[in-house]
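Kindly inspect this one:
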Amino acid sequence: MSDDATGNSTSHFTLTTMVRDSSLELIAAGELDMTAAFKFESRVDALLSAGGVQAVVVDLAQVDFVDSAGLGALLSVRDHARRRGIDLQLARISDPVRKLIDLTGIGDLAGDVTDHRRR
């Protein structure tokens, strides 16, 4: 079992990654805005491209804001995972993120949610 914890931050956003066997867990916190979206997408795409990942869980419990760029990054990460045959699930979606998903009608982004309510 391999465990790699990495923090990647912008001014108001952090992304912690943990790799265990063939699973990747991403824990996002803060504001997934235009500034953070590019770094988020680039970091996740690099992890997916490295190979060996069969499943990804994105924990959004600590994300308190997502703008259109952040939403685009989440959609892009989902698409990258699908193209590689990687299962991607959103977990513990915060209320602000849930509202955005509901308002934009992109429920398929949260289609594989393991637990959509904040705990």
